[in-house]
Amino acid sequence: MSQDQQTTTTSWEVFLRPRRGLAHQHVGSVRATDPDMALAHARDLYTRRGDPLSLWVVRSDGVHAASPAERDPFFSNARHKPYRYPEHFAPLTRGEQDDA
């Protein structure tokens, strides 16, 4: 392995879970040569305050996401399927609730 290959850094996305019951949140990025170094950098940068439950690092080139240009077709609602929306259903009256 050449000297250039050993020192090539990669971008890593950092996700932190602050406490039980909460989801991981993207908190930033670090650059490192391997996952262990990325985790160490992430720990040093993003866990100074508090005591997080867990920390993830993911290679930036391994994250797949929809771009803002794809927003409308990707996230468009299925208006042709009205049963997916609460306004499709008639509200129950007080008498109907007692019968159920």
From TrEMBL:
Keywords: Oxidoreductase. It is an enzyme of class 1 (oxidoreductase). InterPro entries: PaaB, PaaB_sf. The keyword Signal does not apply. Signal peptide: none annotated. It comes from the Bacteria. GO terms for molecular function: phenylacetyl-CoA 1,2-epoxidase activity. The keyword Translocase does not apply. Its EC number is 1.14.13.149. This is 1,2-phenylacetyl-CoA epoxidase subunit B. It comes from Streptomyces lonarensis. The gene is paaB.
